[in-house]
Amino acid sequence: MVFSLGTEVVFLVVCLPFLAAALVRPVYGVLGERTGYAGAAVALVCFGLLLTQLGTEAAVSIPWIPALDVSLRLYVDGWALLFALLASGIGALVFTYSVGYMHGESGLVGYYGALLAFMGSILGVALSADLIALFLFWELTSVCSFLLIGHHTEEASSRYAARMAMVVTVGGGLFVLVGFLALFVVSGSALGTETFSLVAMLEEPEAMRAALREAGLFVPALFLVAVGAASKSAQVPLHFWLPNAMEAPTPVSAFLHSATMVKVGVYLVGRLRPLLESSEWMLLFATLGLATMTITAMLAVAATDIKELLAYSTASHLGLMIAGFGFTVPYGAEAGVFHLLNHALFKAPLFLVAGIVSHEVGTRRIDELGGLRHDLPVTALITAVAALGMAGFPPFNGFYSKELLFEAAYEVAHAAGGLAWLYPVVAVFASVFTVLYSLRFLALFFGARPDGLGTVHRPPLTLLVPPAVLAAVAALVGIDPQFAVDSFVGWAVEPTALEAHEMHAGLPTSLSPPVAMSVAAIGLGAVAYPFYAGVRDAVRTLASVRVLRPNWWYDAALAGLDSGSARLIPTIQNGLLRTSVTWMLAATSALALAGYAVAGVSIPAYDGVGVSLPIVLVLVVAVAVTIAVAVAPSHIAGVLTVSILGVMIAVFYVLASAPDLALTQLVVETLALLVFLLVLEEVPEFYGNIDRRVAFRDVGLSVVVGATVFLTVLLTTRTPPGGGESIARYFTEQAVPGGGGTNVVNVILVDFRGFDTLGEITVIAIAAVAVLVLMTVRDGGDAT
Amino acid sequence: MTAFVLATVLGILFAAGTFLLLRRDVLRIVWGVTVLSQAANVYLMTMGGIVEPSADGVPVLAGHGEHVPQTTDPLVQALVLTAIVISFAMTAFALVLTYRVYQEHSTLDTTTLEGEP
């Protein structure tokens, strides 16, 4: 394994936040509330280390599970670096902001720990080039998000929102896992060896696509990845968890639920774009993205709370990025990547502004706010830059990336014609709503100041500097977008692009159709703004229809699961042992048999007895004795026949070259017989009679279990395990030099696997103590 | 070599064990557990491959291990040995439990035992 010099620092970048998360408690003991600054320092170190990798494209890996070719493989390229830099950069600002915002709150150790772990996970997602590692980091971000949304554990709404986010995003993650496994399965025929390496797959996209199609897995894999990405990136109809996630403290909303975690889905879509690009890809993602963009933009207009407005708006912009990556024209990828950057630059400060407003004014209700520019002049300036970027007004940063989307939509429609013209139309329609809610947010700072508003404090510097930094960068991108493209964004687009294309961004010089689309969106938005209340009420009426609300479906599904379980449990667990046994064994057999049927196994042909005559004779006696046990008329007959069975098994061990087992078995059988006889003396001779109907059913189940076992034994012994020989051989060869004994089984028990034996002895000891206690505590256990 | 004979025997053993598990007499349930664990041990041995006894096949080395022959799988035997001892512990515990259940409730019939709080 050869490290290309310098790239291995990305391991440090991923590990550092986790390490810091583990150290939060002692650090908090020293620094107290200023722990946030330490977190910001960690984020800055990561940011700095990542900056050294600018312009690099390299992979580094350390083996993890070599037998499955799973390794912690990290990969640096423009797209990964853009995402990682955003995560660490905004992370640093959010940690700083948290110091001011979380002042006086409890549970800060958990808060900073989860935030740091989250940053490590998100950096892991950005830099992973191994599907398994990527999946693990992906799910880790969901877990951290769960912890952070539920920060106020004492509030029911927090717990509800945290659980909802967990169910939706982790559930979606499982879809992604299955999709990844599909990629893994076909990688064998496409690349020569089965691999989880994303880098290897991305090098041969055509071969991978052909192999996927041949296996009939292309559309399923595409669909599975889409479901996962949609759940994480809050696409319709899985968008409902995001507004609920606003229960989290505002810095968390800014960091996780606008700038980074929700973009993981978008990131994956961009990453897999060259691999899965096809007509199905475009149909799926362009439609999904534009539908989300429209529906959630409308819902943002209907919002009553500023964080709710921003949450829906985030989902809408994520839809824009997904749609951008969906369009398989060069402008598409450019729109997706550039908007990912721009959105982080304008949405994170808007969330931080929302935090300032709720912190300093005391309310987040849109109707109660207005005219805040007098009290919060700097905040108003930040909001103006960010909100106009969000609306897509030139010359603010959001304009350029949205213009790229319009160009992509127009180009696709122009080439395909027909129904494809819906793409640009819907894009403009959605943008009208974007303009509407952006202006509404901006209006919080303008117009008349409502009388009900109390005194408004000036925010401290820790609250003001982070959004100001982000808004300043956003403004710079807006002033000179071509500089941003040339220096960084163009390079970040490359890994997601399908063909080389010179990227341009700037103010339009002529009225091309896409420019006309922008003009139409801004114009219609401005014209419609005076009728905002009417539009809002219309959307609210529409959104209040129950079946149109995914949130209602979620609640109904959870309630249904609850009541369904409550009804089912008395049936399968009614307190009777035979009921539990019946369900468990029947289910196990059914699953095993169904598995064999699905795998299409064939029963091996009969190829002789396979064992010597003495063994056959012993086994015949064993079977006869076992049947005698099953139908034993009395306890004493049963105990004796069980004992004969044990002795027969001991003889079998002798004949199967296992003298140690035979000795042990004989000793154990003798002891067991003694215990049986002691107990028999004390209990009645009874219960042999069986109801005919019950017996019939029980025999039926027994036959099914027996048949399953028969089939399983046949299939599992057909070919001896490949790796089994080597370990057996290892123990035999090492017995004398490694363990100093010639009886290999004994050496394994007391030396090589000594801890297993310790466990075994512990079990015996526990059983002995339990027996002793049972025999000595005599009066029903309530002796006190 | 496919183990048809052993597969048949194991199928019958497991079927009989299941039948016993479904009885209402607690003592017969204990027999069922015993039969099932015996069967499971034999299954483990089968997985390792059955080799007829010979000086070289038994995993006990002659002399001081100068010559290491191709023996049967010693690891499976170690596993089964552990399993035998543990199943004895379990049987003993289950039997004492049976005895105490009878002392407390004067019955070993699971269907009447369940009714009590």
Structure report:
The complex is a heterodimer of chains A (about 775) and B (about 120). Chain A is mainly alpha-helical and about 775 residues long. Among the domains of chain A are: about 230 residues, no CATH class; about 160 residues, no CATH class. Helices cover about 75% and strands about 0% of the residues of chain A. Chain A contains 32 helices and 2 strands. In chain A, helix 10 packs antiparallel against helix 13. The longest helix of chain A is centred in the first third of the chain and has 36 residues. The N terminus of chain A is likely disordered. Chain B has about 120 residues and is mostly helical. Chain B has one domain: Helix Hairpins (Orthogonal Bundle). Helix content of chain B is about 65%, strand content about 0%. Chain B has 4 helices and no strands. In chain B, helix 1 packs antiparallel against helix 2 and helix 2 runs antiparallel to helix 3. The longest helix of chain B has about 30 residues.
List keywords for this structure.
heterodimer, A: 784 residues, mainly alpha, two-stranded antiparallel ribbon, 32 helices, B: 117 residues, Helix Hairpins, 4 helices
Average pLDDT metric of chain B: 86
Beta strand % of chain A: under 5%
Count of individual beta strands of chain B = 0
CA distance, first residue to last residue of chain A? 67 Å
**Discrete helix count of chain A:** 32
- Could you say which structural class the secondary elements and strand pairing of chain A correspond to? mainly alpha
The radius of gyration computed from the alpha-carbon positions of chain A, rounded to a whole number of angstroms, is 33 Å
Detail the poorly predicted runs of chain B. none
CATH topology group of chain B: Helix Hairpins
Largest sheet of chain A, in brief, is: 2 strands, antiparallel
How many domain modules of chain B?
1
Alpha-beta content class of chain B: mainly alpha
Q: How many strands in all of chain A?
A: 2
Domain MrpA C-terminal/MbhE (chain A): 696-775
GO molecular function (chain A): antiporter activity; Methanosarcina-phenazine hydrogenase activity
Domain NADH-Ubiquinone oxidoreductase (complex I) chain 5 N-terminal (chain A): 65-109
Domain NADH:quinone oxidoreductase/Mrp antiporter transmembrane (chain A): 128-417
